Amino acid sequence: MPAETLPAKSPFYTPEHLAFRDAMRRFVAGEISPHADAWDEAETFPVELYRKAAEIGLLGLGFPESHGGNDGDLFMTIIAAQELARCGAGGVLASLLSHTIGCPPIVNVGSEALKQRVLPPVLRGEKISALGITEPSGGSDVANLKTTARRDGDHYVVKGSKMFITSGMRADFYTVAVRTGGQGPGGVSLLLIEKGTPGFTQTPLKKMGWWCSDTAALYFDNCRVPMENLIGKENQGFKAIMKNFNRERIFLAAGANGFARVCLDEALAWAREREMFGGRLIDQQVTRHKLADMAMRVEATQAMLELLAWRVEQGDTPVGEICLLKNQATQTMAYCASESVQMHGGAGFMRGVKVERIYREVKVNAIGGGAEEVMRDLAARQFGFYA
Ligand SMILES: Cc1cc2nc3c(=O)[nH]c(=O)nc-3n(C[C@H](O)[C@H](O)[C@H](O)COP(=O)(O)OP(=O)(O)OC[C@H]3O[C@@H](n4cnc5c(N)ncnc54)[C@H](O)[C@@H]3O)c2cc1C
């Protein structure tokens, strides 16, 4: 199956990538897949998983060696996302790797003191990092966020709330977008807010999918945050948030296509096994065509993903193309999840079957990290598609 052979046949993977892929595959098969159903039903997973993930270099991927990372390139990130997807539970990826959205602003624009305080314990799996951008009043229109941070002596006083935040209950460090200036993108800053800050409370949220992922609403009731927790310069937070999105979208696209491939693999295995009308499901030409259509989309998405990752590794910033890649990947996931559940029949509707869960997890991918409509708008602007 392509799932087994694709990385080896791609020109982008070196022996180091393939060795990491093998380590990831063993890690997922040994430490995650056997527990994925139980964790999802329990709506959590053990915090020890962070330390184990750190030990195989997963948490440090793409972070500077100087602060406990291992400088892995984007192809390592793609491998990590797609091997993790094999467990069939997107909630594990979301929470286990919430630092990949929480920490980059600290790496890119944070002070050395903040880097030293946050990065090493997070990359060792001892502390958890989260990103708080979205608010109850909206997530797509980031420039219009309403949580305020008012200067008072050597502190900011933060008032407002955040919504749908991954690792929202159990994170130690929250990278939070606040309004320190006037309206619009020019008034936005990023603050590091720590668990235990007086006035900071959280409420857990129940979801359609990603059950084992920790998702919460955050409330800041006049929280006093020291000025040295400002990440980057005051009123310069919007650019740092936008920079975050490119890598996040490549990771989301890699994961979505990984889940699409799981749907294809599961459909193939099922079709070979399921007996009907004196033969097996795969004996029907319609079934083989469905599998071919799924494979066509998965392979096309993978080609786009790897080419764009290569361009980013060359120093290019193909923002519009990355937006379209995210849509391409989430639509491939949607198509494959729907077809695979259909081919499984009633079994595809049952809890504990990978494709049932993946089907429920399509929408969060099409909304989070930039909704499909926002992706199209941004791509059209980047490409100059206006009158
Ligand atoms: C499980 C989960 C985990 C999340 N984790 C995090 C996290 O860790 N940190 C964080 O900050 N956020 C997180 N989010 C929030 C996520 O990023 C937002 O849900 C997303 O950005 C959309 O924002 P919104 O939900 O406020 O929808 P809105 O911004 O209100 O948009 C609603 C809908 O309107 C449509 N729409 C939006 N803009 C346009 C447009 N320009 N043109 C046409 N239609 C449009 C889209 O269909 C969109 O889905 C998470 C969300 C979920 C569900």
UniProtKB/TrEMBL annotation:
<feature type="domain" description="Acyl-CoA oxidase/dehydrogenase middle">
    <location>
        <begin position="130"/>
        <end position="223"/>
    </location>
</feature>
<dbReference type="Pfam" id="PF02771">
    <property type="entry name" value="Acyl-CoA_dh_N"/>
</dbReference>
<feature type="domain" description="Acyl-CoA dehydrogenase/oxidase C-terminal">
    <location>
        <begin position="235"/>
        <end position="382"/>
    </location>
</feature>
<dbReference type="InterPro" id="IPR006091">
    <property type="entry name" value="Acyl-CoA_Oxase/DH_mid-dom"/>
</dbReference>
<keyword id="KW-0560">Oxidoreductase</keyword>
<dbReference type="InterPro" id="IPR037069">
    <property type="entry name" value="AcylCoA_DH/ox_N_sf"/>
</dbReference>
<dbReference type="Pfam" id="PF02770">
    <property type="entry name" value="Acyl-CoA_dh_M"/>
</dbReference>
<dbReference type="InterPro" id="IPR050741">
    <property type="entry name" value="Acyl-CoA_dehydrogenase"/>
</dbReference>
<feature type="domain" description="Acyl-CoA dehydrogenase/oxidase N-terminal">
    <location>
        <begin position="14"/>
        <end position="126"/>
    </location>
</feature>
<protein>
    <submittedName>
        <fullName>Acyl-CoA dehydrogenase</fullName>
    </submittedName>
</protein>
<dbReference type="InterPro" id="IPR009075">
    <property type="entry name" value="AcylCo_DH/oxidase_C"/>
</dbReference>
<dbReference type="InterPro" id="IPR046373">
    <property type="entry name" value="Acyl-CoA_Oxase/DH_mid-dom_sf"/>
</dbReference>
<comment type="similarity">
    <text>Belongs to the acyl-CoA dehydrogenase family.</text>
</comment>
<keyword id="KW-0274">FAD</keyword>
<dbReference type="InterPro" id="IPR036250">
    <property type="entry name" value="AcylCo_DH-like_C"/>
</dbReference>
<dbReference type="InterPro" id="IPR013786">
    <property type="entry name" value="AcylCoA_DH/ox_N"/>
</dbReference>
<dbReference type="InterPro" id="IPR009100">
    <property type="entry name" value="AcylCoA_DH/oxidase_NM_dom_sf"/>
</dbReference>
<keyword id="KW-0285">Flavoprotein</keyword>
<dbReference type="Pfam" id="PF00441">
    <property type="entry name" value="Acyl-CoA_dh_1"/>
</dbReference>
